[in-house]
Amino acid sequence: MPTLVKMNEELNDFPEFETEEEFIAWFDTHDMSPYMDTLEEVTEKFTVIRTRFTTRPVDLRLRTDHFEAIETLAERRGMAYQTLIQRWLLEKLNQEAPDLVPR
Question: Which of 51, 79, 82, 88 is most open to solvent, judged by the fewest CB atoms within 10 Å of its CB?
Fold first, then answer.
């Protein structure tokens, strides 16, 4: 069976994979950053389908220093502070009451 992934010889610790499933399992548990320069760029186009959910504005009071820290962290991550707060709330909801989170 042909090898699915072959890397630059400098990265000799990168394994060869017989199946796509083996590659996926390895990829899910390893840091790929050392290999980024050796990977082939993908130029294939694909359509992203976004599902819009109804939203509801919420008035939330936060300490100014906490809010500023959230804004700073969101900026570091390259996202809006509202998105960061939504992610945190959803993470916590998934931890505390996963049965209440719509899929």
Answer: 51
Return d(Cα 8, Cα 35) in angstroms, integer. 9
- Which SS3 state, helix, strand or coil, does residue 79 take? coil
* pTM of this prediction exceeds 0.70: no
Domain ranges across the chain = 1-46, 48-103
How does pLDDT run across 6-21, given as a tens digit for each residue?
A: 444 455 456 788 888 8
Residue located via tokens 């992934």: 5
Domain 48-103 part of CATH 1.10.1220: yes
DSSP 8-state class, residue 10? T
